[in-house]
Amino acid sequence: MTDPVDEDRIETARRLFAGPVAFLKSAPGLKFLPDADVPEVAFAGRSNVGKSSLLNALTGRNALARTSNTPGRTQELNFFDVGTPLTLRLVDMPGYGFAKAPKDVVQKWRFLVNDFLRGRSVLKRTLVLIDARHGLKDVDREIMKMLDDAAVSYRIVLTKADKIKPTELEAVRERTVAEARTRPAAHPDIISTSSETGLGIAELRAAVIEAIG
Ligand code: GDP
User: Fold this and answer.
1) Can you give the pTM of this predicted structure?
2) In what helix (H) or strand (E) does residue 1 lie, and over which residues does it extend?
3) Cβ(148) to ligand 1 under 6 A?
4) Three-class SS of residue 106?
5) Is residue 130 classed as helix, strand or coil in its secondary structure?
6) What are φ and ψ of residue 131, in 5° steps?
7) How many A from CA of 47 to the centre of ligand 1?
8) Ligand 1 centre distance from Cα of residue 79 (Å)
9) 159 lines ligand 1 (CB under 6 A)
10) Cβ within 8 Å of residue 73, ≥6 positions away
11) CB atoms within 10 A of CB 85
């Protein structure tokens, strides 16, 4: 049975995301960040994890977040305003883990993300997206370490859950939860999602609301 508090949060979240959501700006460096005047929830994940699809599913828009995943072209933080009056900002962080990314691109990603995580007082939580077919990889552990070191709270979200059998999903989920529970800044629970079937999307919306308190 769902907790009534959860049900309230799911309804609040549904209403919020049914309202206005608008692209605000892209920030290729810290000096381009919007004013830190509203709580933010960021989305991180390796390229192709399904981040754009999930942001679109979360906000019920078809083309809010666009895939522009060419190495070297994605070193930007994209900000989206949610709600009137403005309630929160979603931050689409640049994808990582390109097999062939040049070293300077990887380094630029590291600096941008690290500086953002360490300096952004309004960042309430980061959702770290993990492809359910693959589970946690070392590139994911690198960003988890950056989040732990910056003391930014984060929660793991499995994507593309429709692509594997329920028994496999359960196994990945258990392994991932076990690892999350060893990390200082990780939320102890994870969310399984599919942008294709809508699995976990209401829960994800509620998790965003929970993150901003
Ligand atoms: P991004 O690079 O992380 O922004 O990933 P995209 O959202 O562009 O998705 C990468 C690919 O995975 C695309 O071909 C999507 O159609 C596909 N995809 C994303 N989410 C899902 C999902 O939940 N289920 C399935 N089956 N495919 C998905």
Assistant:
1) 0.95
2) none
3) no
4) helix
5) strand
6) -65, 120
7) 10
8) 20
9) yes
10) none
11) 5
Choose the residue to mutate in 43, 48, 53, 162 for probing ligand 1, maximizing ligand atoms within 8 Å of C-beta: 53
All residues at 6 or more sequence positions from 169 whose CB lies less than 8 Å from its CB, including other chains? 132, 158, 161, 192
Q: How far is the CA of 85 from the centre of ligand 1 (A)?
A: 31
Sign, CA torsion 2/41/111/152: negative
Q: How many helices (H) and strands (E) does the chain have?
A: 6, 7
Burial class (CB in 10 A: 0-12, 13-18, 19+), 167: exposed
For residues 200 and 207, the answer to whether their CB atoms sit within 8 Å is: no
> 162 CB less than 6 Å from ligand 1?
yes
DSSP state of 62: S
Report the number of distinct structural domains present in the chain: 1
What pLDDT is attached to residue 73?
A: 54
Give the pLDDT of residue 2.
Answer: 61
Q: Which domain holds residue 30?
A: 4-212
- The pLDDT value recorded for residue 6 is 82
Q: Assign residue 42 the CATH number of its domain.
A: 3.40.50.300
Residue 95 CB less than 6 A away from ligand 1: yes
Q: What is the largest CA-CA distance in the chain?
A: 50
* 190-211 tens-digit pLDDT: 999 999 999 999 999 999 999 9
